[in-house]
Amino acid sequence: MLAASLALGLGSGVRTTVLVTAAVLAGQLSVGWSNDWIDAGRDLAVARPDKPVVAGLLDAGVLRRWAFGALAACVPLSFATGLVPGAVHVVAVASAWSYNAWLKRTVWSWAPYAVSFGLLLMFVALAQPGRGLPSAWGVLAASLLGVGAHVANVLPDLEDDAATGVQGLPHRLGRKRATAVALGALLAAIAVVVLAPPGGPGTAAWVGAAVALGLAVVAGGVALVRRRSRLPFTLSMAVAGVCVALLVLAAPDLVAAAPAT
């Protein structure tokens, strides 16, 4: 998990790492279950077999209760890390819920991802005793990662989404342009993580950047010649994985020590 890995990369103690991980896990469960609950009717309309309601495993009412239950757990877990980091994380989760409830159907579908990923990094940083705000470049990289992940994640479902009235940014762009935007945002995030830290990039950063660029080139080429292929999505997720790994490697440079009082 990104939150746990970043916390460990920042030298977090056991208590802080456990609280941060538990708060983020509860928040993500609430977001995931709320998405399946809110989209249950749409998923049934297009018969998506990967969804629990379509598969007959759960009904929307159960998912709704689980979503609010996880949200209820997320709030105290978040504030157990401190008042300011707790508030930051609650806003990040609220932003993600806004995507599920409304913004996914608008041209602003990317915004909750940019906000939530940037705030997630801030939450992890602020939860660390003796640490201050994360660097601006770290927040920018996390936000770009969120945008790229959003667009890439939507790629396999563009047609099903459009058939049920979802017209987010990737749907308005179309598959080829959306693939280009996803890869562009992810590569921009990687460029920031590689080039922005003080002292210049190390060998691992350059290797990660080269791997990500190679994956992006293949993904773009496949998207041009095989319109319905899922490979661009898979490769985009691989690029996102490289970005996450580079963020974790850069964790010591992401956050400065809190100023003395």
UniProtKB/TrEMBL annotation:
UniProt cross-references to CDD domains, sorted A to Z: PT_UbiA
One MF term in the entry's GO annotations: transferase activity, transferring alkyl or aryl (other than methyl) groups
InterPro entries: UbiA_prenyltransferase (IPR000537), UbiA_sf (IPR044878)
Cytoplasm recorded as keyword: no
Chain segments annotated as transmembrane: 66-99, 111-130, 136-156, 177-197, 203-225, 237-258
Membrane-topology annotation of the record: Multi-pass membrane protein
Keyword annotations of the record: Membrane, Transmembrane, Transmembrane helix
A Pfam family of this chain: UbiA
Localization annotation: Membrane
Top-level division of the source organism's lineage: Bacteria
Transmembrane helix keyword on record: yes
GO cellular component: membrane
Main location: membrane
Protein name per UniProt: Ubiquinone biosynthesis protein UbiA
Species annotation: Cellulomonas cellasea
Upper taxonomic lineage: Bacteria, Bacillati, Actinomycetota, Actinomycetes, Micrococcales
